[in-house]
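[Q] Does anyone have a clean structure-token version of this?
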Amino acid sequence: MAHRAGTRRPRTDGAVVLLLPAALLGCFGQTALDEPSNQRNGPITYQIAVSPPKPVLCPNQRIQLTAQALDTGLHPVLPPPRFSWSSDTPGLVSVSSDGLASATYTLLGGVATISASALGFSGSIAVTVEDPWQCWGHP
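[A] Here you go.
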């Protein structure tokens, strides 16, 4: 038995399926064909975005970093995952488990790469620590 588009098709389990033309589905935003995830595997992560983009700190300053997991359509992954944070130079910039980056006191300054990881992906930013003379002038 053929059914016309936009008609109801009775199911044997009591549910009703509404058949719509595929072109009409696009009018309602994302369709099941566009979804970046499926019921079984969850969202497909494309990248981890870390912000702010190029923080510059003076010695002993702190900054709260944030991370966001994005799917293949660059939409936020919901619910947001828990991130693991790390620094490639913890003696210059350390980072807490919640993304609070802290510059140590240094006379030379430098750059540390801070990374956030979740769902098998990671993203990073460079955190610059200025030398004290650039921050406060000569003593």
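[Q] Thanks! Anything notable?
[A] DSSP finds two helices and 13 strands in the chain.
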